[in-house]
Specification:
two-stranded antiparallel sheet; three-stranded antiparallel β-sheet; 15 helices
Length: about 425
């Protein structure tokens, strides 16, 4: 029979993932689905790099068998849904985080058992079904159903309601559910099984369990930087790489071990959970101050975590804008049209015929003091094809306005309009 704790935990998990998913603008999500490089790198980091790091620690780090098996389960597990919450409150790329959560949850059904089969055999010469057979597949499929349904319903609601105000309040719902889930998990930890003796281990235990998290974070930042991903995307993939679902390892420990071995095995997911929260929390603060998130680095900490820049910067960019930089003689221009990468904006650019370029530049120099001479190169018009209901919220500090594609070198003026 399903217990109250399971129902309450899954309900809070649903509202957390639903709120984070409903925060995301559907166009941003569709854009991330085309971001093959980031998605592929996220899968590799989570299901290849982190399990390898866990295996190396288990093989050469001096951990005993119970702690080693528990650590292998932790590093082979899918990312926890808390990763969406961290990306939301620290203003990383939430659309990418939600997309990665959906993909990793589906892939975990195959890749997690596969990783455990391979690495447990090489680390302990374990029987093929010894660890995998201890997995609670019922719980895994329940979690998969909760996460996927919450993501699907959240994105459907975001697309149908088509309102930035809804996105803002959905984000608040997700944040409150996240806080409630943290408190609920802490209450279960303190009031539940006392076998997890986390502070009664040797130093190899603490260093060994810490290494996959630190190593994964370092490798994720180096790899995403080398592939020149956007900075908020680098933060998101770093969080997704290291933030694991430690509840699966707890379930395996309860199934496989007893006595002192159970105490050691239970201590691994509990200690890793504390580590990932502390390390990634500190990392996100450093990333924010370094300008790697969507939030300006010169605002207050409480303002930063209390403001959804995922929504507000998208809304700000959806304002109807006109950027103009015209040549003196309009007949000297050639027109070129293209749509933006979001598919909802038309860019019209004008360039000067090379044969008349010298004449135009000479004309510019002769009339350089006239106010109506803005520059010789481009004329760009950007108009969103659809409009969403305004949120009613304003950015505490508006980030620098992004340049329209094709207008980087133009001298322009801006007209912003609701």
């Amino acid at each position: 029979m399903v217990s109250f704790n399971e129902i309450a935990g899954n309900a809070l998990l649903f509202f957390l993932v639903f709120g984070m998913s409903a925060t995301v603008d559907i166009n941003m999500l569709l854009l991330q689905l085309k971001n093959v490089k980031a998605l592929f790198m996220g899968v590799v980091l989570q299901f290849a790099i982190l399990p390898v790091l866990g295996f190396l620690v288990v093989k050469y780090g001096g951990l005993d068998r119970s702690a080693g098996i528990s650590l292998l389960v932790v590093t082979s597990s899918p990312g926890g849904s808390y990763s969406n919450w961290w990306c939301s409150i620290f203003n990383a790329d939430l659309a990418l985080s939600v997309t990665m959560t959906a993909i990793s949850t589906l892939l975990s059904v195959i890749l997690m058992p596969a990783n455990l089969l391979v690495y447990s055999k090489f680390a302990f010469n374990a029987k093929d079904d010894e660890i995998v057979g201890s997995l609670d597949f019922n719980s895994l499929f329940i979690a998969l159903t909760v996460v996927i349904s919450a993501i699907g319903l959240g994105l459907f609601a975001s697309a149908k309601v088509h309102s930035y105000k809804f996105n803002i309040y959905a984000n608040k719902l997700g944040n409150y559910a996240g806080i409630a889930l943290v408190l609920f998990s802490a209450w279960l930890s303190t009031g539940g099984d006392s076998d997890a003796k986390i502070w009664n281990q040797q130093w190899q235990f603490y260093v060994g369990v810490m290494m996959p998290c630190l190593g994964g974070l370092l490798i994720a930042n180096i790899a995403t930087s080398c592939f020149q991903l956007q900075k908020p995307e680098r933060v998101t993939l770093s969080v997704e790489c290291c933030y694991q679902n430690v509840g699966i390892a707890t379930s395996v420990a309860l199934t496989m071990f007893q006595g002192e071995q159970l105490a050691t095995a239970m201590a691994v997911p509990l200690y890793y959970g504390l580590l990932e929260a502390a390390i990634l929390g500190l990392y996100c603060i450093v990333a924010w101050k370094a300008g790697w998130t969507k939030a300006p680095r010169n605002i207050g900490f409480l303002t930063m975590i209390g403001t959804s820049y995922e929504v507000l910067t998208t809304e700000h960019g959806d304002l109807i804008s006109v950027e103009v930089s015209l040549a003196k003689n309009q007949k000297d221009l050639k027109e070129k049209r293209k749509t933006s990468k979001y598919g909802d904006t038309i860019h019209i650019s004008h360039s000067i015929d090379e044969e008349k370029k010298d004449d135009v530049e000479k004309n510019i120099e002769e009339n350089s003091e006239e106010e109506n001479v803005l520059g010789p190169w481009w004329s760009c018009f950007a108009t969103p094809s659809t409009r969403k209901e305004a949120s009613g919220f304003v950015l505490p500090e508006v980030p620098a306005e992004s340049e329209v594609d094709g207008c980087d070198d133009a001298n322009v003026f801006h007209l912003w309009k609701r």
